[in-house]
Amino acid sequence: MGRPSRQNCGSCHFYGGGGDAVKHGDLDSSLVKPAKNLDVHMGTLESGGQNFTCSRCHTTRNHHIAGRIYDKPAALERKSLLQDDLGDKIMCESCHGMQPHKSGGMDSKLNDHVDKVACQSCHIAEFARSQPTKMSWDWSVAGQLRDGKAKVKGPDGKAVFVKKKGAFVWEQNVVPEYYWFDGTLDYVTVEDPIDPTGEVWLNRPNGSYDDPFSRIMPFKVHRGKTPYDKVNKVMVIPHLFPRNKEDKDAYWKSFDWQKAIKSGMKYAGQKYSGEYGFVDTAYVFPTTHMVAPREKALDCAQCHTKDGRLENLEGFYMPGRDSVELINAAGWTGVIGALVAVFIHGVMRFVAGLRRKED
Amino acid sequence: MLKRKGRWLAMTLAAALLMAVPVCASAAVEEDGAPGRRMAIQATKAKPIVRTITADHSKFKELQFDPEQEKTMRPEEVTQTCLKCHNQAALQFHQTIHWTWRDFDENGKPTDLGKGGLSVNNF
Amino acid sequence: MSEHKMKKIYLYSKFERFWHWVQSVLIILLLVTGFEVHGSFELLGFMKAVDIHNTIGLTWLILFVFIVFWMFVTHEYKQYIPTTKKLFEVAMYYSSGIFKGEPHPVQKSKNAKHNPMQRLTYLGLTAVLLPFQMVTGLLYWAYNDWADWGLGFLDLEVLALLHLIGGFAILIFLIVHVYMTTTGHTITAHIAAMFSGWEEVPEEETVPDWERKAERH
């Protein structure tokens, strides 16, 4: 008898999405015995880590395990253990407090950021640092063969095409996308209408600059081409796994989307028009594991620059990134104008001086 | 006059340098100085095993299984043994998302979200 | 002008020269780091630029307190009281007379260091532009404390852009100012005077009463 190990939790959570490292990007089998470089907290003692098990942070109450559940935030308030000694340990702040960096000089400036930037944004500069993770999944090409084969492997040995599932893109050392996040996510269910003319975000981080509880958080965004009901404009639930050998409705038995969707939607108690198509989708995962040693944290210029990591985040002014082009143009015109004016003035003085000498 | 000029230039430069000193000093990283790091090390200092375990489960007669019998036992049979003493565990577990596959609302009622609900994903 | 007989007068005291040159170094460093923080170019790296900009900005603030204190104690602030007398003549001199070799319409003296155009410019700089940059800079620096200070209504974008406009204005001043130092009787005459304190002026000129700094009573 003992407490659950990383291997225990990981036997499901490291393999989400149908295989090792597929789903999360920050959770895979390399966390069974990680080096400190991969995860400062879970890293083995030999590598200089703290050898944390999952439950050191995912503390439990009556078998409820702390952590985000769909639209439920991992924690309602950011508090240290000193402020609430019976609270969950799930936030970085639980142990690190609200002033995690030194005080004085630029370190104080780092502490100034904790109101708007989640720890993860700087301290997990890249995810999937040990194994590649799936970044896109095109279901629309499933059911066929590629080059006459049911399975094609990419250069890193990971399958890039499987007849049962379609085509994938794997990536390693991925730079996350950053969004304002108040700890909750909005989800599209099979009952919610979608707009198939654009990319459908099946879940989306809630939050904005104006919300004092929101901070900038890194996300893995998994993109896909996924079946939907063309007439009712909703996502569909296809029936994939055959229940038994005679289950001809299952997609992984007869590779017939029509039958699989009809059967899946019926099981879920949903209407299905009978006409399906494929739509571009996105699904986000907050990146929160695989915290790197502090030497690997991002430096200021990764965000405080034009075309930096936060170039797409709107609604606020960020030094080094933002400007008003009109003021820049006017300012530099004035500077160049002054230079030209003094240059001309100087040349005229010089020429006039020469002329006077000649006279 | 040249001498005076040189002195003033030197003084000006010295003043500028003096001002630059605190800049350089503050940029140097001091080891383990961050209060957050010290706090976290403090908070997690004690190994979990030291803290809470007051029973050695390997000594319980109930958990001594016959090695021959163990080969054909189902995991659920071991769980049944646990539940004899941990008499709230099953009831608690049935309330969690690991059992229901459904998210809960504020009143603890299952919602449409979850693998057992109407959620969709793209993987 | 060189045919005029020249005499040397002691115009700039030690402290005045000290603050002028320290301030010039600080301003140039602030301009370089400031425009880097603004994203105009990359030189030291964003973090170093911010760090140096903050440190120098605060240093300057302390120096500025001493400068202002000095001006009032020595009554030198009166050198900055604006006047329109001969302003037109000075403007005409720089736009035409200077090319014809005419003498400067206003001569420097111990009690009148600045010509009317300089008075206006330096007053604008010392009383308006520099304090404006210091106030906007200090507020920018204290961004995280706005709410605590009851300044939550401030907008970082507006403040940063005001500070930027001030920066452009100082840069333009600097360019013209450095050029104007070359307009003495030799190219380096004015700069040399700012190092030594001694300015060369034509001997026979007298200074009109209105230009004199009022004497202490």
Structural class call of chain C reads: mainly alpha
N- to C-terminal separation of chain C? 37 Å
Gyration radius of chain C, to the nearest Å? 20 Å
* Oligomeric assembly: heterotrimer
Parts with pLDDT < 50 across at least 5 consecutive residues of chain B: 20-30
Textual characterization of the structure:
The complex is a heterotrimer of chains A (359), B (123) and C (217). By secondary structure, chain A is of the alpha+beta class. In chain A, 21% of the residues lie in helices and 18% in strands. Chain A contains 7 helices and 13 strands. In chain A, a hairpin with a 3-residue loop joins β5 and β6. Chain B is built from 7 helices and no strands. Chain B is flat, with a radius of gyration of 33 Å. In chain C, 25% of the residues are buried. The two termini of chain C are 37 Å apart. In chain C, α1 (14-38) packs antiparallel against α2, α2 (46-73) packs across α4 (116-141) and α4 (116-141) runs antiparallel to α5. Chain C is elongated and about 60 Å long. Chain C has one domain (6-206): Fumarate Reductase Cytochrome B subunit. Chains A and B meet through β2, α2, α3, β11 and β13 of A and α2 and α6 of B.
Short description:
The complex is a heterotrimer of chains A (359), B (123) and C (217). Chain A contains seven helices and 13 strands. By secondary structure, chain A is α+β, with helices and mostly antiparallel strands.
